[in-house]
Amino acid sequence: MDIVVSILVTIITIFHLYIMWFEMFAWETRGPKIFRNFPRELFPKTKALAANQGLYNGFLAAGLIWSFFIQDAAWHTNVLLFFLGCVAVAGLFGAATASKKIFFVQALPALIAIALLIVKLSINS
């Protein structure tokens, strides 16, 4: 189960690093290609807002990366649960306010990883 959780957390981390890059550095170039429904003139005007969101995605990725370096099992699990919880809440909020797709690409993987960690904790106790 540890390997499955690690793979899932790695995928979630890579996703958040990509979102960070996209929102902080490629908003004006890739944004119009991804968000075709938005007018092109919107992207330069919202560059700072997107970069701010990207920074938060970077913090989520940093927390998940940090969890891989924590040797103490209890702290590793606690830190991992905290950051996965943050990812899940962000995904649920995004799904409720922006696009239902966000639930499947952000919240669901985090919720699955949280469930696996909880199952692991219940088996080990």
Please explain how this structure is put together:
The protein is an all-alpha fold and 125 residues long. The chain has one domain (2-124). It contains six helices and no strands. It has helices at 2-25, 27-34, 42-45, 47-67, 73-97, 101-124. It is elongated, with a radius of gyration of 16 Å. The mean pLDDT is 96.
Question: What attributes does this structure have?
Answer:
single chain; 125 residues; mainly alpha
Produce the secondary structure layout.
Blueprint: H1 2-25, H2 27-34, H3 42-45, H4 47-67, H5 73-97, H6 101-124
Helix pairs in contact: 1-2, 1-4, 1-6, 4-5, 5-6
How many distinct beta strands? 0
Q: How many structural domains are formed by the residues?
A: 1
Largest sheet: none
> For the CA atoms, what is the radius of gyration?
16 Å
Series of H and E elements = HHHHHH
Query: What structural class do you assign from the helix and strand content?
Result: mainly alpha
Beta-strand portion reads under 5%
Task: Give the N-to-C terminal Cα separation.
Answer: 15 Å
Helix coverage percent of residues? over 70%
Low-pLDDT stretches are none
Shape: elongated
- What average pLDDT do the residues reach? 96
Number of helices: 6
